[in-house]
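Extended Data, record Oxysterol-binding protein-like protein
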Amino acid sequence: MAEPSANSLAARTASTPNSAVNSKEPSRASTPANAPVEKPPDDSSKLKTFLGVLRRFIGVSDLAAVRFSLPAQLIEPIPNLEYWHYLDRPDAFISIGDSDEPLGRMLGTLRFWFTKDLKYVKGKPCKPYNSTLGEFFRCTWQIEDTQPPLKHTHNSQPSSSATSITGDKVVKVSYLTEQTSHHPPVSAFYVDCPEKGVIARGYDQLSAKFTGTNIRVIAGAHNLGIFITLQNRDNEEYQLTHPAAYLGGLLRGSLSVSVADSCYVTCAKTGIKVILEYLEEGWLGRTQNKVQGVIFKYDPDNDTKTRIKDVSDKEVLGRIEGCWQDKVYYTLGNGPFAKTPEKILLIDLNPLHPVPKNVPSLEEQLPNESRKFWDGVTNAIVNKQYSLATTLKQDIEENQRRKAAERKAEGRDWQPRFFAGAVTPVGKPDLTQDGEEALKGLHEDRYDLAPNKENGAF
């Protein structure tokens, strides 16, 4: 699934600090002048066509593994690797480790959690380009270190080691992702903020099933969640698992994302766990997008509690409640949420919007770097040359199949460039030397990279 149509173009953008382009102004190569301009389909006809394609896959256990090809007019002009990240609000990410108290750091992790998919709160979902083997994307964010500290005890002021809450310090976050496997489709990602000592990594893999009325999307077998390490906090590691999401509105012609599942945030070193339960339907079937949760002490060697009702009051440190598309609050202590007088705001999503990213200019990108790789298709879609875009897209897909056949005939397995292995059993990718150099270059605003020795799709 991908970015909202209005926002997807905004996410490609560009004012140019040094040689990076900010993701608000697209930069594209030209397409043939004689390619015909076609009338763009409206959202309703797009959905009808999309639904017609999906109906062929009713009962298929995993749509994501099928990787069926859609015509260009149904796709948003943005690469999947550029879209599929969790840093809509990198300012929330860099503040995770600010608190001097374990509970405060868990609350900081939860604040980040509720901002990671802000694109779905602020817009409608749609379909990006399928990633190709060996394709990669890199970018940075430069943000002010201004997140307020979170209160973590009844009788104390919030503690924080944040360098600034006045906007006088700018912090850089760097992001690198690569498509490491095509069957199944898996990408590895790595996020780094050396100034704050925060890193995140993981594998993105989705499994999707079309039921006839909606698409149920869950994490694939290699996607064990987001793993966040706080280097300045004795390398505390937080694992954040993904709940099932549902893409609905197919029949009524208006796509929407809903969540009705449980997910977990755990930190073995501090012995603190969070269970979040998303409740989609309310009284008389009205959508409420409600989330509730419990923060509690747990035993990492005997982690058996998976439901809020499994947690005894004596273990509870705090409770969570609110709307994941609006405001989320927390309480401290083990009392019921409704009966606790002080309900503290964890996050208000209403004034927030995704933060634009800085991306190397096309001239500095390698041929298999996402924006450059898909540039011809993007240019054709933006110019409403949908037949041309579909042809270019099909050429890419055919080239990828040809390359895969060549490797199979030669008995060779694909080796990612920036990550050590296509997948790992623990869900935490490690960087290769090339990956470390690419990330270091992002930190230093250097974008020169040697060409790939082998490419997967051209």
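Summary. The mean pLDDT is 85.
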